[in-house]
């Protein structure tokens, strides 16, 4: 029963919901990036490389060996550098996209933390800390004036 109570507290505090939302958004973000890479960036790149499909590019170390009936006796050994190139391109696009999103969110966060900017609602904790800071400066000024 204690385990159930702890799980309930964990779920109610929002940790589980935050994780679920993060996982769902991450999965959707992965789909968007996958389409962006495969349907937007790779086709023009393919035109530049004269229609070559990079995913199928590989360096064959040993050819497949077949017997007289055509059955493969020994499989091909190859290094798939084309798939590595695509994965690297995915990584660069994902990294750049995450950078842009984080930069945008930080700009919004910094704007909301500016207590002088009245166009954006300042979070209550930032507002209280700002007021506390102003009161402390006022008190310090009064103490210095008395000396």
| Portion of residues within helices | 55-70%
Please mark out the parts with pLDDT under 50 across 5 or more consecutive residues, or reply none: none
Mean pLDDT: 81
How many DSSP helices?
4
Strand content: 5-15%
Cα Rg:
29 Å
Order of helices and strands: HHEEEEHH
Kindly, what is the distance between the CA atoms of the first and last residues, rounded to a whole number of angstroms?
63 Å
**Total E-strand runs:** 4
- Described by the principal axes of the CA atoms, the overall outline is elongated
State the strand order across the main sheet: 1-4
Report the major sheet: 2 strands, antiparallel
Q: Which secondary-structure class do the elements indicate? A: mainly alpha
List the helices and strands and how they pair.
Layout: H1 2-12, H2 15-48, E1 59-62, E2 65-66, E3 72-74, E4 77-79, H3 81-113, H4 124-146
Antiparallel strand pairs: 1-4, 2-3
Helix pairs in contact: 2-3
Describe the structure.
By secondary structure, the protein is mainly α. The chain has a two-stranded antiparallel ribbon. Strands 2-3 form a two-stranded antiparallel ribbon. The chain is elongated, with a radius of gyration of 29 Å. The N and C termini lie far apart (63 Å). 0% of the residues are buried. The model has no long low-confidence stretch (mean pLDDT 81).
